[in-house]
């Protein structure tokens, strides 16, 4: 994995705990697909993440198809995986669990 410059020392450890996420082919980001029970649940998830993105001033690349949401986190300046990406991935995991993932 390629990390952004000047990141906290614990970033690699925190990133390694995101076991449901995969490293992107560029090795500069992480990606995960979330499956919810309904489109409405997927939309609630996306709305909650979008609201947090406004607060954190950090936005994903994502795709929605009915009950599926694929989220990719990476940082463009400085290039690589940053603490912002990991914090937002952790937020996505917590939010998806609260909303309810499809079994």
TrEMBL record:
Signal peptide start-end: none
GO biological process: tetrahydrobiopterin biosynthetic process
The name this protein goes by in its record: 4a-hydroxytetrahydrobiopterin dehydratase
Family that this chain belongs to: Belongs to the pterin-4-alpha-carbinolamine dehydratase family.
Record keywords: Lyase
Gene Ontology molecular functions: 4-alpha-hydroxytetrahydrobiopterin dehydratase activity
Organism: Lophiotrema nucula
Catalytic activity field: (4aS,6R)-4a-hydroxy-L-erythro-5,6,7,8-tetrahydrobiopterin = (6R)-L-erythro-6,7-dihydrobiopterin + H2O
Annotated coiled-coil segments of the chain: none
InterPro entries in the record: PCD_sf (IPR036428), Pterin_deHydtase (IPR001533)
UniProt key word Lyase: yes
EC number: 4.2.1.96
Domain of life: Eukaryota
Source species taxonomy: Eukaryota, Fungi, Dikarya, Ascomycota, Pezizomycotina
């Amino acid at each position: 994995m390629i990390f952004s410059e000047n990141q906290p020392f614990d970033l690699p450890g925190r990133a390694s705990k995101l076991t449901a996420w995969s490293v992107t082919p560029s090795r500069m980001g992480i990606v995960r697909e979330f499956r919810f029970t309904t489109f409405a649940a997927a939309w609630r998830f996306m709305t909650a993440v979008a609201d947090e993105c406004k607060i954190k001033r950090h936005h994903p690349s994502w795709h929605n198809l009915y009950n599926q949401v694929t989220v990719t986190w990476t940082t463009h300046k400085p290039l690589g995986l940053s603490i912002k990406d990991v914090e937002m991935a952790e937020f996505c995991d917590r939010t998806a669990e609260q909303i309810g993932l499809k079994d």
